[in-house]
Amino acid sequence: MYPFSTINSCISETVWGSSSKLPICIHWTQTPSLYVKNSTFEKSNLNGSKVDGWTATKRITEEKDLSEVIQVVDNEGYDDSRALKVSDGGIAYQMIDSVYHNFKHDFSVYAKGKGKITIRYYSITENVYMNPQTIEVDSDELKEYRLTDLVAPATTQRIRINIETTTGNSITVDNVSLIQK
């Protein structure tokens, strides 16, 4: 699912106990920066208003208890794994700090149901968001959605990933990924 790059590096160095230089080669696989905490929901449960890295809340007009509108559900995610389900005016979000002007990202998520997922850039100087990018989800089947080549505007300090629904609807998400390019 994530793009990997393989790095091979060889140098010639004098090895301890040897009088000549020998090649030393290093081979490793590197992943780009992954920002999203608890992106698969595998070991999570709602704890008050938190789902391990995610904040759970609801619209003020929603009368149901928070535990009814935000849930971690079994067997509904990618490959029948656990997933986050947001229903009936619920909102789940995650704030990601240290995102600055011209940082570039790719965002992806598996989702089903009816709702929206919005990426918002927040300013350094104000608590206002800029350049929101929204994915409208309306599908009975879990499928991958992407926003590519996102670029942080000037004065950006953080990103908020927002998952929300309206009354009578629900959205299920899994494998949330925000990768810095």
Task: Record the SSE blueprint.
Layout lengths: L4 E10 L6 E10 L19 E2 L2 E5 L7 H4 E4 L9 E5 L2 E8 L6 E20 L5 E23 L4 E9 L5 E11 L1
Antiparallel strand pairs: 1-2, 3-4, 4-7, 5-6, 6-11, 7-10, 8-9, 8-10, 8-11
Describe this structure as you would to a colleague.
The protein has one helix and eleven strands, in the order ββββαβββββββ. Helix content is about 0%, strand content about 60%. Strand 1 and strand 2 (about 20-30) form a beta hairpin. With about 180 residues, the chain is mostly beta strands. The strands form two sheets. Strands 3, 4, 5, 6, 7, 8, 9, 10 and 11 form a nine-stranded antiparallel β-sheet that branches. The two termini are about 15 Å apart.
How would you concisely characterize the structure shown here?
Helix content is 2%, strand content 59%. With 181 residues, the chain is mainly beta.
What is Rg? 21 Å
Q: Any idea what the shape is?
A: globular
Q: Using DSSP, what is the number of strands?
A: 11
Strand/helix succession: EEEEHEEEEEEE
* Intertermini distance: 15 Å
Give a quick set of tags describing it.
disordered N terminus; mainly beta; globular; 181 residues; two-stranded antiparallel ribbon
